[in-house]
From TrEMBL:
NCBIfam families: F420_Rv3520c. This is LLM class F420-dependent oxidoreductase. Keywords: Oxidoreductase. Signal peptide: none annotated. Transmembrane segments: none annotated. The lineage of its organism: Bacteria, Bacillati, Actinomycetota, Actinomycetes, Kitasatosporales. Residues 17-314 form the Luciferase-like domain.
């Protein structure tokens, strides 16, 4: 199981620790470092900055939101950074949800998310392989565009710049069972939002068709500390925000996922509290048991025991959100 460092997206300001942590992860032998975006900082710019200050570690977007860019624009970002970094780029993509797509990006959430994702990946693959002009007779991402509001003058094009790698890895952040199953067919890997090494059966059917070499790369909060309860608070805060704030009451993929993992009543309680504006109560309503299952928190000996559960399952890459260099070092030592 490879280790990666997941830096996430910025909060109110740039996090001055991110570059230092990325460089430390590279020094410790971590395989990859990942950036993200929500509705603030973008994933590619921060990753390019890290690329310029490292030399070996692989670079991933975990995740870049599809609604933020056309698929050809995303392909341009990926092929450019792949060249600049000497072939270290991995493209992690996610569809996000209706609240973000329509509220932040000002565009409709696709009625058929699987079709939209499949077309998006198809366009990127065509750009990167550069076997001919990009042509997709698609519902969401037609190339060329032939809508009635167009000029009719568009023509198929292929990238001027020759991509460094035709098979640059593409990973998808998918949550629903059908979306995960499609991911095994059209992508090189999957970026789970929550992963419990104690509940791998939740995903077994969806992963049945995964080919050899398919990456399963969940993100997990990791921190070496004496007080487990205190160490879990950032995990519970994250879960409270995602389950309560990253979706509508009637359509929240994150809450649905927690429910499928055996915590349905708790997920709805967290969601209700958050939507009522009772955010502190929502965070405290997140079960410690669930937060603990999807993270690595506690003294070194406890983390060592729990890390073996992750290593025993199908996970190929553990992407840790670690707040300090000591935690990074301990995980590297335990995973060696």
């Amino acid at each position: 199981m490879r280790l990666g460092l997941a830096l996430g997206y910025w909060g109110r300001d740039p996090d001055p620790r991110h570059l230092e942590l990325a460089q430390e992860a590279e020094r410790l032998g971590y395989d990859s470092v990942w950036t993200a975006e929500a509705w603030g900082s973008d994933a590619f710019t921060a990753l390019t900055w890290i690329a310029a200050h490292t030399s070996r570690i692989a670079l991933g977007t975990g995740i870049a939101q599809m609604a933020a860019r056309t698929p050809t624009a995303t392909a341009m970002h990926a092929l450019t950074l792949d060249h600049l970094s000497g072939g270290r780029m991995m493209l992690g993509l996610g569809l996000s949800g209706p609240q973000v797509v329509e509220g932040w990006y000002g565009r409709p959430f696709p009625q058929s998310p699987l079709t939209a994702t499949r077309e998006y990946v198809d366009v990127i693959r065509q750009v990167l392989r550069r076997e001919g002009p990009v042509e997709v007779d698609g519902l969401f991402h037609p190339h060329p565009y032939r809508g009635t509001d167009g000029t009719g003058l568009g023509k198929p094009l292929k990238p001027i710049t020759h991509p460094l790698r035709a098979e640059l890895p593409i990973l998808l952040g998918a949550e629903g069972p059908k979306n995960i199953a499609q991911t095994t067919r059209i992508a090189d890997g999957w970026l789970p939002l929550y992963w419990s090494p104690m509940r791998t059966d939740v995903y077994r059917a969806s992963l049945a068709d995964a080919s050899e070499g398919f990456r399963i790369a969940p993100m997990a909060r990791a921190v070496v500390c004496d007080d487990v309860t205190e160490g879990l608070l950032p995990v519970k805060a994250m879960l409270g925000f995602y389950i309560g704030g990253m979706g509508h009451a009637a359509r929240n993929f994150h809450a649905d996922l927690m429910a499928r993992m055996g915590f349905e009543e708790e997920a709805r309680r967290v969601q209700d509290l958050f939507l009522q504006g009772r955010r502190d109560e929502a965070v405290h309503a997140v079960p410690d048991a669930f937060a603990d299952e999807i993270s690595l928190v506690g003294p070194r000996e406890r983390i060592a025991e729990r890390l073996e559960l992750w290593r025993a399952g199908p996970v190929t890459d553990l992407l840790v959100t670690a707040p300090d260099r000591d935690t990074l070092r301990v995980l590297a030592e335990l995973n060696s």
